[in-house]
Design brief:
The chain is built from eleven helices and 21 strands. It has 481 residues and is of the alpha+beta class. The protein folds into three domains: 44 residues, no CATH class; 271 residues, SGNH hydrolase (Rossmann fold); 152 residues, Sandwich (Jelly Rolls). It has a six-stranded mixed beta sheet with strand order 3-21-18-17-4-16, with helices on both faces. α7 packs parallel to α8. The radius of gyration is 26 Å and the shape is globular.
Length: 481
């Protein structure tokens, strides 16, 4: 075939492909579970290419590694912000709202008990991701040790502890549909509880058969050092219809046994635990209590609790019974609430009005949270950038920026501070740069952070928060002089 004929054939094929791309539906053609897409080459040539977001400053951030020496103060944040978008926005632009939390943190090292910072969020926090880094930063600065609240069983493994529960434990979560219905909303601070016997009517409990629910908690070398240094174990439980025995033992030592009568009230069993590699917690009885969590903590300093709920948007708080919840918050001595929500709502938002209504709804839940915790400061961390496929490339999800704006608006209006994670990581289409970084800072789903990305996200937040707290400390010192 002559060269001219070959060239004409190629031009003809390209023209046909371009025509198909032009008339092909932009949202593809769905055939069963498969969607056929065809890129519009002419449209792509006519529009300017998306500029890749520069995240070199984020890649260059120095982050702490697990296993780092736990000497106080070695992981102080930079004195000046290196990422312009990484800042916390306050009501009336006044970080003074943090003063109560700062006072409690400054006094934590000499306190007779640890104070708690609660970190609620969705699947971005699963397995103690992000929270473990924040916890390490807080404990390096203000002392303390341990991981705080842990469920008996969870949806996945944890970075900071290995759990070995017996198979008869069953988990009940506010995020799940229960059949038959539970008939109550007692989920506690973790938004879930566990039982080792089935839920049955009182008359059907077999008093002659004692069952055992056991879990072994093992320390791990991969975790941050201070998270493994705890001397107190507290077990939160209630609503057992028959007496139960609770035993806690470290390694192969003789366990300490305690008897508890039947009752509905919240019980908090506290055990002192010395240096050990593993902890054995065992319930024995004919009817299981609802076990709301085990807190591993120091006797002073600060503990940051990881409270992750896969699929949560933050509004699930309305489905959690408040009397029990308030009692647990009081027992934990909560001094600061960090909420991280928004990502799960974005795929379901179809208009600016939807975004506004979600922001208003979460804002109302912030008011409830503050009331339950005695008015402590609240910081809401907004959604990260998230991408969807756009032809052959990726682009920020529709309505994400509207959700981010609505959350910021209603957080501030309801007395909470706001950390704009979307802006901190680079803004629109920044997720692509996080995924394409080497090593990747986000997963190939263009939604979740990788372990390296989670550390950088936590470092950005800590840098912003600690710099503001340092400013408040300096203000107090200057007035004292």
């Amino acid at each position: 075939m002559r060269p001219v004929a070959v060239l004409l054939f190629i031009v003809f094929v390209l023209a046909v492909l371009a025509l198909i791309g032009r008339i092909f539906p932009s949202d593809g053609i769905r055939i069963g579970a498969v969607t056929l897409e065809f890129p519009d080459a002419l449209a792509r040539m006519a529009s300017p290419a998306d500029k890749k977001v520069d995240i070199s400053a984020i890649i260059a951030l120095k982050v702490d590694s697990a296993g780092l020496s736990d000497t106080l103060g070695i992981a102080a944040v930079d004195a000046t912000r290196t990422i312009p978008g990484a800042r916390i926005i306050y009501p009336a632009n006044d970080p003074g709202m943090l003063r109560p939390a700062l006072a409690a943190l400054n006094a934590a090292a000499t306190s007779p008990h640890a104070v708690h910072v609660l970190h609620y969020g969705d699947s971005q926090l699963e397995g103690d991701r992000i929270t473990s880094y924040l916890r390490n930063k807080f404990q390096l600065r203000w002392g303390g040790g341990g991981m705080g609240l842990l469920p008996i069983i969870d949806v996945g493994p944890s970075f900071s502890v290995d759990r070995e529960p017996t198979e008869n434990w069953e988990r009940f979560s506010v995020m799940e549909h229960h059949d038959p219905p539970l008939g109550h909303q007692r989920y506690g601070a973790l938004w879930s509880f566990c039982r080792f016997t089935p839920v049955v009517a009182d008359s059907l409990i077999n008093d002659s058969v004692l069952q055992e629910g056991r879990i072994v908690l093992r320390k791990v070398g991969r975790a941050y050092g201070r998270s493994q240094r705890y001397t107190r174990c507290r077990v939160f439980f209630a609503h057992n219809h028959r007496p139960v025995t609770l035993s806690v033992g470290a390694d192969d030592a003789v366990p300490e046994n305690r008897e508890f009568s039947a009752g509905d009230m919240l019980r908090i069993a506290e055990f002192n635990v010395n240096a050990h590699a593993s902890l054995d917690v065992t319930f024995t009885g004919s009817d299981s209590p609802e076990v709301y969590g085990i807190s591993l903590e120091s006797t002073s300093g600060v503990v940051v609790d990881n409270l992750a709920a896969r699929g949560a948007g933050g509004t699930e708080l309305r489905n959690v019974e408040k009397t029990l919840l308030k009692a647990m918050y009081t027992a934990l001595d909560v001094e600061l609430l960090i909420l991280q929500f928004g990502g799960n709502a974005v795929p379901h938002i179809e208009s600016a009005q939807d975004a506004e209504e979600y922001g208003a709804w979460l804002g109302s839940q912030i008011v409830t949270w503050r009331t339950l915790c005695g008015g402590v400061p609240v910081i809401l961390i907004g959604p990260s950038d998230m991408s969807i496929k756009d032809g052959t490339g990726w682009t920020t999800r529709p309505w994400l920026e509207e959700v981010n704006a609505a959350l910021k608006k209603h957080a501030l209006a309801n007395g909470a501070a706001y950390f704009d994670l979307f802006a901190a990581m680079g803004g629109r289409n920044s997720m692509v740069s996080w995924v394409e970084a080497d090593p990747p800072l986000a997963a190939p789903d263009y939604t979740h952070f990788s372990p390296q990305g989670a550390s950088r996200m936590a470092e950005l937040f800590c840098e912003a928060l600690f710099n503001d707290l340092d400013g408040l400390n300096e203000h107090v010192a200057s007035h004292a002089d």
